[in-house]
Amino acid sequence: MLLNSVNTNYGAMIALQNLNQTNTELNSVQNRINTGKKIASAKDNGAIWAIAQGQRAEVRALGAVKESLQRGQSAVDVAFAAGESISDLLVQLKEKALAATDESLSSSSRDALNEDFIAIRDQITKVIDNAEFNGLNLLDGSLSGGYQALANVEGGTITVDDEDLSLSGLIVTLGASEDIGTATEASAALSAVNESIANVSSALARLGTGSKALGTHQTFVAKLSDSLETGVGNLVDADLAKESARLQSLQTKQQLGVQALSIANQSTGILLGLFR
Predict the structure, then answer these.
(1) Minimal CA–CA distance to 218: which of 70, 79, 74?
(2) Who's near 69: CB < 8 A, 6+ residues apart?
């Protein structure tokens, strides 16, 4: 049995405790609605927040991986386009060299063919010099070991080998000073051009495979990043429909709590009636 006292209002204390609890829950719900998160900081749920923070770090790291893959794919695509141009130039050189093997050519015709041959030959070097993306050139031999793109957050890499298409090289065997000034020179140049065409085709196939590998892995990394972001959302995002319904319930409960506290505070006044 509760003691009727003007010094201790037990009913008011209980009503106040319940009202404070309601206000605390109401503040929590309002914070979730404002931030869109049920766990906005470590004090909400330290364990879940730590897990989510770790996954956020993974997502940010995967962003760096995607950027590395994108740079690599762009560099390879530029090299591939330049390689196709070099292949086309070699086809033109073959035409000139083959025509120059004709020993019945007049000297003026041979000179004209030779001038064209030299101009086209030198164009190969110009194409290679301009086959650069963000300081990366896969065709001039400057990238020893090729391009190494990041593959994962642990620092693993995907390597695309460089293809040195410089004149007088292992792929383009045509000499940097080779010409078709005589039928004999034309015959030697034709042989070198034929070999170079075959080698460049193989090099382009390798570059194409490398570009495809980078693109495929880039797609995978993007999907992985999306999945991690979804996972983080499942951990920390608030169900706004649920929180909205809870907000209305708590607001009603708050109003009732205020009324209950008011009624409890009036109980001491009732005691005065006993002395009238």
Answers:
(1) 70
(2) 149, 150, 151, 158, 214, 217, 218, 221
CA distance 227 to 161: 31
Give the C-alpha separation, 162 to 204, whole Å.
Answer: 11
Taking only the tens place, the pLDDT of each residue in 237-255 is 777 777 778 778 878 878 8
By the 10 Å C-beta count (0-12 exposed, 13-18 middle, 19+ buried), 120 is classed as middle
How many whole angstroms separate alpha carbon 167 and alpha carbon 189? Answer: 12
Could you read off the pLDDT of 43-92 as tens digits, one per residue? 778 898 899 889 999 999 999 999 999 999 999 999 999 999 999 999 99
Reference 79, options 204, 243, 257, 235; nearest CA is 204
Handedness of CA 93, 97, 100, 102 (dihedral sign): negative
The number of CA neighbours under 13 Å toward the Cβ of 270 is 8
Backbone angles phi, psi at 74, to 5 degrees: -65, -45
The angle at the Cα of 250, spanning 249 to 251, to the nearest 5 degrees, equals 95
| Cα–Cα distance measured from residue 55 to residue 227, given in angstroms and rounded to the nearest whole number | 10
Q: Are 39 and 46 in contact (CB under 8 A)?
A: no
Q: What whole-number distance in Å separates Cα of residue 241 and Cα of residue 119?
A: 72
Residue with tokens 């690599």: 72
